[in-house]
Amino acid sequence: MRLVAKVLCVLVCTGVTGKGLADNKFSLGLGVTASEQSLGQGWRALPAPSFSIEYEGYRLATRGPGLAADLVPSRALTLGPLVRYSGGRESRELPGSYRQQPDIPASAEVGLSIGSGVPWQVIGVPLPGVFTLSADLVTTFPGGHETGVFAPSVGWVSSVTPQLTLIGALGSQWGTEAHMGTFFGVQATPDTGVSAYQPAAGLKDLSLSLIASYQHTQRWSTIWLASVSQYQGDAARSPLVRDTGALNRVFLVWGVSYNGVFD
Residues 124, 125, 126, CA angle at the centre, nearest 5°? Predict the structure, then answer.
């Protein structure tokens, strides 16, 4: 499952609750991800290096297998381009009766990311912390799978203690007709008994995430993330999803980071 909405939520929260814009700072991190792959392909663990650098309110940071920039020097708004790698799919990874389906090429995705955070009390809600909104709009370069996705997210950031911050996020992904057809459509193969299926554009999945960030010292911190997502709509009705029992997916992250400042 993509980590876009949740990572953006973390960046928004850092901008809202962190240091002032005059601070020039950087972060270097290393972690590990464990994810349940789509369409019943088992679990996969991968290293997760990260970095970010902020200068006069402008920011460049890793976003999963890619980079995102914040070009608005404001603590209340993030806005900028992103570029990332999107893995494809090989037919040999599918169940036997679906191995005549076409491969999906890996792609480079480009798009725009936007987010904002507002303290609950500012909008008249008697709750601690910050309410966040974010969205990514991405598409692929020609030669890849050439499909687009819109991924909005809402979140709640709360500082439980001076060291511990909790972030909850509810995200979704909306796929174009090309995206849904590429990843969830099925071509008929009479010799294997597979019938054609063509999904429409629409809601692809919903996800619920919890992020915990703990500041051990002024320089060192750790982060934990747990997320579960569920396919929705035509994606959930796809034979590829039904026959692999892969309606739900889980994503876990643990990482440690060093934070510094520079002139």
Answer: 115
